[in-house]
User: Fold this.
Amino acid sequence: MPTLKDIRVRIKGVKSTQQVTKAMKMVAAAKLRRAQERAVMARPYAKKLKEMLGSLSAKVDTSRNPMLSGRSEVNKVLVILITADRGLCGAFNTNAIKLASKIIHEDYPALHSKGGVSLICAGSRGFDFFRKRDYKIVKGYAAVFQHLDFSTAKEIADTASGMYLRGEVDRVVVAYNEFKSVLAPNLREEVILPIAPETTVTGKESGSDYIYEPSPSAIVDELVPKHLNTQIWRMMLESSAAEQAARMSAMDSATENAKELMRTLNISYNRARQAAITTELSEIVSGADALTN
Assistant:
């Protein structure tokens, strides 16, 4: 049975932990606001760029551009995994890693057994996980979310598109957490190469006949790399916002758990103290009776 001193030490430790988790929750809340704004602002541009690419693709021969025409056989796959650089954010990193593992082992088991699946890891947690297990990692970006920059997204997109154009991979899949709400992120798995543009248009746009300069095919060739860069950048912004939301939620739960644990420990401390006082009183009464007799 723990002594009064042991309980006091534990109460002090839990109180210190509660102060840390409360501070981390406040920091995550401040970062979440900025990250959420960046993610929401990136969505309309990425969506319109995809729609424009789809509208133009309907007017050109997509077989001319290898990034728009899929391969007849998929023999090699590149998985881009986006995780956080730090922990203490609940199941955020674990779920993303599980999704990447599912893609590798369940979606492409035959290719994985032949060494046909490679990885690009953005974020220290995913990179460390797969590096320690000897997976084929093309590139790893550690501490990328401490100073998130568009140049990193462009570098990832350039690496993936270069491997695809050289025939080193036949498909590129991205696994990441999309920011949905503060309560829970939305795990997403998206194929970004080959590009499958949305060709459905409605309203005035469908009946319009635009004049393109220099030509639709030239504009498509220009838009394809911009589209890849923008999509990777959007996914990284979504993951950053989802990470802060997950961390804020996890730290809030940790603070509440510490509060409940302190209440339980205080009850245990009072009971132990009461038992000690009762024991001392009994010893005093027994001693007094012994002296009178």
